[in-house]
Design brief:
The complex is a heterodimer of chains A (about 230) and B (about 325).
Chain A lengths: L1 E3 L3 H13 L5 E3 L2 H11 L4 E4 L7 H10 L6 E5 L5 H4 L1 H4 L3 E4 L4 H14 L12 E4 L2 E4 L4 E4 L2 E3 L3 H12 L5 E2 H9 L8 H14 L9 E4 L3 E4 L4 E2 L1
Parallel strand pairs in A: 1-2, 1-3, 3-4, 4-5
Antiparallel strand pairs in A: 6-7, 6-13, 7-8, 8-9, 10-12, 11-12
Helix pairs in contact in A: 2-3, 7-9
Chain B lengths: L1 H25 L12 H69 L7 H26 L7 E3 L1 H18 L7 E5 L10 E3 L1 H17 L6 E8 L3 E8 L6 H4 L21 H11 L3 E7 L3 E9 L16
Parallel strand pairs in B: 2-4
Antiparallel strand pairs in B: 1-3, 4-5, 5-7, 6-7
Helix pairs in contact in B: 2-3, 3-7, 4-5, 5-7
Classes of the chains: A alpha/beta (about 230), B alpha+beta (about 325).
Chain lengths: ~230, ~325
């Protein structure tokens, strides 16, 4: 895998950790080097910082995707950027993590995107509409339909549903969801996540005991358990 | 400087008149003006001139006052802007080193149960939270709120539960005596229009502070009352209190009561509360007696003022 960050202190710390976890790691320290290494070395996955001089992380993803390549990319975004603002989905990144992140979290995201990726095919996170059973969401317009009828979710609940649905069958801790969607991690505000999950279940009429869509993983977090398809 | 010039300018006609009069007296000139204008017209003209002068003076004063207020407002706004930028920059500059520390820890050959390493890790996590809070504080002033009907009683209950759970996790803690006092008769507290996540953050911080700065088994009361257009929430404790000279400044970022140094805290809690309350067009105040306890009172309008509603999200109601 290719690890891209202009801060040497970060790559020097992360590379041995990822290597110990079984990855072969190559390091690039700016966007241009990342694109060169990517073309030359064809990694299975890319972890890339967003804020870098000259060519930033978003541009790296754009250029990789422009050549029709769907190698999984995780962006390391600036803290405070929520899912919506990071606009990572528009550029076709598979997932993203806010700095400062827990290296374990990076590892689990990395394994998840690798598991999910199908060679040569864009990830669900790059699709504009997603369906699961009789549920359909339009991601760019932030609209949700159930059995063909449009339903109303608050902005945060629809972001949460979007995120869970574009990363199905993955366990997301409350903390991760909070950081990813709200862009912050106050010590105890994971209640915010629980409340939005309750709202989604109410609106989608999803029974927590035998869920069609969102499953509670006791003491751990949430997982979208339905089968998700594009369109 | 400007004022002195204006003053001299105003005196100039009088000075000119005095000089002319002295010249006339010195030259023993006996020129005289005989008026054929009726006295009534003269009186009318004099009144008109005096009123004109007075009106001009008033207009001038109002203009000066307005300019001064405008300047003060702009000064405050630019000060807040600079402050926000500073917080955002601080946050940005801190995130990379913290990420690097966490990365280095994860790569360390030593086991994480080494007390030194676990200390580094917990301090890195503490820094993460501090940085997060600082940034949130900077963002709070601008980010769009998600307005919806909020039941403050539920929010307060959840916040008490959260603080209780934290106290229970502390070794040797006996907890606190929490009491929720919400109206039942003649009707329960009405919901208010607000951002539920931010309101939780504010209420949680108040209750957590009350618990933090009061001894084991102390009494903490969360009381709510309804007024005509507002809902008032008070969090009172029988804790250590805040010295009188600190009461005015505890709302500032990183400010802490001088008697609170021994307690772990970021000094950002009340600043967050203040920002959340301000974004809801409410007011917050603190009353405290050292050694007796503290009461923080936040008054929140049931609905934001009409001109703020233009920015409500479609899910607002």
């Amino acid at each position: 895998m290719l690890l891209v960050d202009d801060e040497e202190a970060i790559t020097a710390g992360l590379a041995p950790f990822l290597e110990r976890s079984g990855f072969e790691v190559r390091i690039a320290s700016d966007g241009q080097q990342a694109l060169d290494d990517f073309a030359l070395w064809k990694p299975d996955a890319v972890v890339c910082d967003v804020i870098m001089p000259f060519i930033d992380g978003r541009e790296v993803v754009r250029q990789i995707r422009a050549s029709g390549n769907w190698t999984p990319v995780i962006l390391l975004t600036n803290v405070g950027e929520s899912f919506e603002r990071s606009a990572a989905l528009d550029e076709g990144a598979d997932d993203y993590l806010n700095k400062p992140f827990d290296p374990q979290e990076l590892l689990s995201r990395l394994r998840a995107v690798l598991r999910r990726s199908v060679a040569g095919k864009p990830p669900l996170s790059a699709a504009s509409t997603l369906s699961s059973g009789h549920l359909r969401i339009d991601r760019s317009a932030r609209r949700v339909w159930l059995d063909g009828d449009e339903v109303e979710l608050t902005a945060r609940a629809s972001l949460l549903l979007d995120y869970l649905m574009s990363h199905p069958h993955e366990l997301h801790s409350r903390d991760h969801l909070l950081r990813a969607l709200w862009g912050y991690d106050f010590a105890v505000n994971t209640r915010a996540v629980d409340h939005r999950i309750a709202e989604i279940r109410r609106v989608l009429d999803d029974d927590a005991a035998s869920p069609q869509f969102i499953e509670t993983v006791s003491g751990m977090g949430y997982r979208f358990c339905g089968t998700v398809t594009r369109g | 400087m400007r004022r002195r010039r204006l003053f001299i300018g105003a005196l100039a006609p009088l000075l000119a008149a005095v000089i002319v009069a002295m010249v006339l007296v010195a030259s023993e000139n006996s020129l005289a003006l005989e008026s054929v204008t009726p006295l009534s017209v003269l009186v009318f003209a004099a009144g008109g001139i005096i009123t004109g002068i007075l009106l001009l003076a008033i207009v001038w004063r109002v203009t000066v006052q307005k300019a001064r207020e405008q300047g003060a407002r702009e000064g405050q706004a630019s000060q807040r802007q600079t402050h926000r930028q500073f917080l955002a920059r601080l946050d940005h500059e801190l995130k990379n080193p913290i990420t690097a520390i966490k990365a280095a820890l994860s790569s360390s050959e030593c086991a994480l149960d080494d007390p030194q390493l676990s200390n580094i890790e917990s301090q890195a996590n503490r820094l993460t939270r501090l940085v997060g809070d600082l940034r949130k504080l900077a963002e709070l002033e601008q980010e769009p709120l998600e307005w919806e009907q909020v039941n403050l009683e539920e929010v307060a209950k959840d916040a008490v539960d959260a603080v209780n759970a934290e106290l229970a996790a502390l070794p040797g803690s006996e907890g606190r005596q929490f009491a929720l006092d919400f109206p039942r008769v003649p009707w329960p507290l009405p919901p208010i229009l607000g951002d539920v996540d931010l309101l939780f953050l504010a209420v949680y911080n108040l209750i957590s502070n009350a618990a933090k700065y009061s001894p084991d088994a102390a009494h903490i009361v969360v009381r709510a009352t309804e007024e005509r257009a507002t809902v008032v929430l008070e969090v009172s404790d029988t804790g250590m209190g805040i010295p009188e000279e600190d009461v005015a400044t505890v709302w500032e970022e990183l400010a802490r009561g001088s008697n609170a140094r021994g307690t772990v805290g970021s000094g950002l809690g009340l600043a967050l509360v203040r920002s959340v309350v301000a974004r809801h067009y409410g007011q917050a105040e603190i009353m405290s007696l050292p050694g007796e306890g503290t009461r923080v009172r936040i008054a929140l309008p049931k609905e934001p003022p009409p001109d703020a509603r233009a920015t409500l999200t479609p899910h607002g109601r």
